[in-house]
Amino acid sequence: MPYYVVLSTLTDDGRETLKERPERILEVNQEIEKMGVKVLQQYAVLGPYDFVNIVEAPDNITVMKMSVELGSRGTVQLMTLPAIPVEELISNLKG
Fold first, then answer.
1. CA 6, CA 85: separation in Å to the nearest integer?
2. Alpha helices in the chain (DSSP H)
3. Is the distance from CB of 50 to CB of 7 less than 8 angstroms?
4. How confident is residue 72, by pLDDT bands cut at 50, 70 and 90?
5. What are the tens digits of pLDDT across the range 40-69?
6. Shortest CA distance to 6 belongs to which of 42, 35, 30?
């Protein structure tokens, strides 16, 4: 299944939710799993983004639907990047 890097930045509402209910992060992970997207790794980071997630999904459409759903809530802004494992890249370049 394809991998994606999801960079997220919380809005003011998102930061307020995180402060009041930090466990909300794990609840959202369960919600997106029901959408067909599995969180493989998740990191809170410093800098222009608040979180970096490595996810797995069957296709771009599934990830797009997840992004629209989460973005429409007004608590987070997302940037999603398709990711190719280096081994797969090398194999395809040789192929």
1. 15
2. 12-20, 24-34, 60-72, 86-94
3. no
4. very high
5. 999 999 999 999 999 999 999 999 999 999
6. 42
Q: Of 8, 14, 88, 12, whose CA–CA distance to 43 is shortest?
A: 8
* Identity of the amino acid at 51: F
Tokens of 1: 């299944």
Q: pLDDT tens digits, residue range 14-32?
A: 999 999 999 999 999 999 9
Maximum separation of any 2 CA atoms in the chain, in Å: 52
Whole-model pTM over 0.85: yes
CB 60 within 8 A of CB 26: no
Query: What tokens appear for 78 in the block?
Result: 């997302």
